[in-house]
Specification:
The protein is an alpha/beta fold. It folds into 2 domains: 176 residues, Flavin prenyltransferase-like (Rossmann fold, 3-Layer(aba) Sandwich), CATH 3.40.50; 205 residues, CoaB-like (Rossmann fold, 3-Layer(aba) Sandwich). Helix content is 31%, strand content 23%. It contains 13 helices and 21 strands. The protein has an 8-stranded mixed beta sheet, sandwiched between helices. A 5-stranded parallel beta sheet has the order 2-1-3-4-5, sandwiched between helices. Strands 6-7 form a two-stranded antiparallel sheet. The longest helix is centred in the C-terminal third of the chain and has 13 residues. The radius of gyration is 25 Å and the shape is elongated. The two termini are 32 Å apart. The structure holds cytidine-5'-triphosphate.
């Protein structure tokens, strides 16, 4: 097979016992016709021989800023290496290297290459279970994800310490298959039209003030990004959000209020194949919008509120061929409330997230979701980036 033909992979190896598997990783990458160069941290050489890696990769292995055994030292240019690569894969990545990557430390060639690299970076952590579970490691992983790196999951099982648990480096074949899918995304949504609502809505009180909520739009934008990667034509109807997105197959419609969001949905819903309501639509709006700024001195005894239109219920009523997915953000009796919304709004699935979960919900880059099907079958996922959550959601939608 040559699924990585023409791809230049820079493999960064750090000093963990899982480094003994890296020759197999190099071989598996080469078998897919990738060109591979290897950069090692000094301590990784205690676990795997540079000669094995240079033989398999057919390229010199680098580990120092200048070529070693030479009277006339040659500069191993980290910038050039970073620019050469189509993808940097750090495997295994020790807890120490993860921490250094988070903090921008640069005391070996691999870290310098990482800081210089403009290509996508994949990181395969490997360590003992308690080190992996430690809050500082988990925080480092989340920070690295927030920098845009792809942190691969760890395997579970027998560890070098003799303990059993989570912390094994992903097996070389699994890593290669992740790299292959990254370069050859499956276009399962090619030809499909996906409509996504995202962000908050703002309901005006007067020309200056509004009723809104803390939604950042991150989840809806992540869904749009994944749908675009899967080949869909996406209409993203977004309330006020500072998220950025740009793609030739994307129509981005910016709205402010629930009413405007509904009008945009009405325009596109009929021709939609998959609709996902990720917006945190304000449930109430002022009965009247004051035409001038309300003055403090005049006082404000109360604001009369009326319900906004329920956009998702509208889509549920008008549903024909569409697959319709809602979100439920709950703080108590989560499953029960989500199932209620699923039935009431005539949905094919609902994504439940709880504000009880730390690092899930508004503003943060991570989320913890449960996907509930129309027959109430539920699939729960651990805390992961909103992009990964979006991937899980589309995996579920494809089973509908
Ligand atoms: N939704 C919508 N229009 C509204 C309110 C909600 O389209 N006016 C959609 C949201 O985008 C989400 C789902 O309905 O997909 C559930 O939203 P949520 O705020 O959790 O529930 P509500 O139906 O508003 O009920 P409650 O606030 O009582 O929990």
């Amino acid at each position: 097979m040559s699924l990585l033909s023409g791809k230049k992979i820079l493999l960064g190896i750090t000093g963990g016992i899982a480094a003994y598997k890296t020759p197999l990783l190099v071989r598996a990458l080469i078998q897919q016709s990738a060109e591979v160069k290897v950069v090692m941290t000094p301590s990784s050489k205690d676990f795997v021989s540079p000669l094995t890696l240079s033989t398999l990769s057919k390229n010199p292995v680098l580990s120092t800023f200048t070529a070693e055994d030479s009277d006339n030292p040659v500069w191993n240019d980290h910038v050039e290496l970073g620019q050469w690569a189509d993808l940097l894969l750090v495997a295994p990545a020790t807890a120490n290297t993860l921490s250094s990557m988070v903090h921008g430390r640069c005391n070996n060639l691999l870290l310098a290459v990482y800081l210089s690299a403009k290509c996508p970076v994949f990181i395969a952590p490997a360590m003992d279970l308690d080190m992996y579970a430690h809050p500082s490691t988990q925080e480092n992983i989340n920070t690295l994800k927030s920098f845009g790196n792809h942190v691969l999951p760890v395997g579970e099982g027998f560890l070098a310490s003799g303990l059993e648990g989570k912390g094994r480096m992903l097996e070389p074949e699994e890593m290669v298959s992740k790299v292959v899918s990254f370069f050859n995304p499956t276009l399962e949504l090619k030809g499909k039209k996906v409509l996504i609502t995202a962000g908050p809505t703002y309901e005006a009180i007067d020309p200056v003030r509004f009723i809104g909520n803390h939604s950042s739009g991150k989840m809806g934008y992540a869904l749009a990004e994944v749908a675009l990667k899967m080949g869909a034509a996406v209409t993203l109807i977004s309330g006020p959000s500072s998220e950025k997105i740009n793609h030739p197959s994307l129509k981005l419609i910016k709205v402010v209020s629930a009413e405007e969001m509904l009008t945009a949905v009405q325009e596109f819903y009929d021709s939609t194949d998959i609709a996902i309501a990720a917006a945190a639509v304000a449930d109430f709006k002022p009965k009247k919008i004051a035409s001038n700024k309300l003055k403090k001195e005049s006082g404000l005894a109360h604001i009369s509120l009326v319900p906004t239109v329920d956009i998702l219920s509208y889509m549920g009523e008008k549903k024909k061929k569409q697959k319709l997915i809602g979100f439920a953000l709950e703080t108590e009796n989560e499953l029960e409330h989500a199932k209620g919304k699923l039935s009431r709004k005539n949905l094919d699935g609902i994504v439940l997230n709880s504000l009880q979960d730390p690092d899930a919900g508004f503003s943060v880059t991570t989320n913890k979701i449960t996907f509930i099907h129309a027959d109430f079958r539920a699939e729960s996922y651990p805390l992961q980036s909103k992009l990964e959550c979006a991937q899980r959601i589309f995996e579920q939608i494809l089973t509908l």
